Amino acid sequence: MTRAWLIGAGPGDVELMTLKATRALAQADVILVDDLVNPDVLRFARADASIVYVGKRGGHPSTPQEGIVAQMLDHLHAGRSVARLKGGDPFVFGRGGEEQQALHAAGIEVEIVSGITAGIAAPAAIGIPVTHRDHAQGVIFVTGHGAGSSEPDWGALAATHMTLVIYMGMRRLNDIVSALLAAGMRADTPCAAIESATRPEQRHALSTLGEFADAVARAGLGSPAIVVIGGVASLALARAAAASSSDAASSPDAK
Ligand code: SAH
C-alpha cells in the first residue's frame, strides 16, 4: 500500500528526531526534503530511496509550493510511498498544514509525524524554559516574517506579558524591536536570539530589548534563528554568566 507522511525532522540534532520519524523514513520510496532539515537524518532512509531537495537555500530557487504537492501526487499515483520531511514540527509554520489540505483535496490520507519545534528546542539549547512560572503564564509562537496587513499586532502581543518566541524574525528584527518598545514593552526586557540551534554551529546573543538589535548585529547572527523576548530569557543570561565565570576559573590565566 502506498503511503504519505508529513514528518518533522526536529530542530537539527539528529538525536532530537522521533523514533516514529525514523521508522517512517525507513519505509518511504521517495523523500522530499526541506531547507532546514539536517541531511544527516537521511541515514534512516532506505539506500534505494530517491531523495529530492526542495528547499530554497544554497542559492537554488525554492520549488513552489504547488510544485511540491504536484510531485508528491505524481509519486503517490505511481504507487510510490512519499515522505515529506520538514524542519522542526511539520505543523508549526513551514506550510505543513497547506500540504495536508492539498493532499486531502486529492483524496489522499497523510500521516502526520510530529517533531520538536525550534521554538522550544532553540531556547532550551541555551537553558531557557519558555514557560517558567516565575516569568510567564504562557508562550506565544509568532512569525516575524509578515509585513503590511499580515504584520502581527506587536502592541497586542506586548500587552499579554507572555513569552514571545519569534520564528523568521531576523530580517525584520529592528522593526519588531521598535514596535515592541513603542507599545510600551520595557527596554530592560531580557531577549535572546539563537541561530542554528542544536547544531554544531549553534550561536546565540543575549541582551535587553533596548540593546537587542545592536547585540544581534554585533554577534553577526542571521537565519535560521529563534528570537525569545521576555523574562524567561534572563535564565539563559544567568546560565551564560555561570558558564563564563567557570571558564575563567578553569583557564590557566585565572590560576
Ligand atoms: N517547522 C519549523 C519552523 C519552520 S519556519 C519548526 O517547527 O521548527 C523556519 C524558521 O524556524 C526559521 O526562520 C527559524 O526562525 C526557525 N528555525 C528552524 N530551525 C531552527 C534552528 N535549528 N535554530 C534556530 N531557528 C530555527
In short:
The chain has helices spanning 19-25, 65-77, 96-105, 118-125, 154-159, 173-182, 209-219, 233-250, and strands spanning 4-8, 30-33, 50-53, 82-86, 111-113, 139-143, 163-167, 190-195, 203-208, 225-229. It has 255 residues and is of the alpha/beta class.
Report on the architecture of this protein.
This protein is of the alpha/beta class and 255 residues long. Helices cover 33% and strands 19% of the residues. The protein contains 8 helices and 10 strands. Helix 6 runs antiparallel to helix 7 (209-219). The radius of gyration is 20 Å and the shape is elongated. The N and C termini lie far apart (67 Å). The relative contact order is 0.14. Mean pLDDT is 90; it is low at 246-255. Bound molecules: S-adenosyl-L-homocysteine (SAH).
Summarize the topology.
Elements: E1 4-8, H1 19-25, E2 30-33, E3 50-53, H2 65-77, E4 82-86, H3 96-105, E5 111-113, H4 118-125, E6 139-143, H5 154-159, E7 163-167, H6 173-182, E8 190-195, E9 203-208, H7 209-219, E10 225-229, H8 233-250
Parallel strand pairs: 1-4, 1-5, 2-3, 2-4, 6-7
Antiparallel strand pairs: 7-10, 8-9, 8-10
Bound molecules: S-adenosyl-L-homocysteine (SAH).
S-adenosyl-L-homocysteine is lined by residues 11-12, 36, 86-89, 92-94, 117-118, 122, 167-168, 194-199, 223-226.
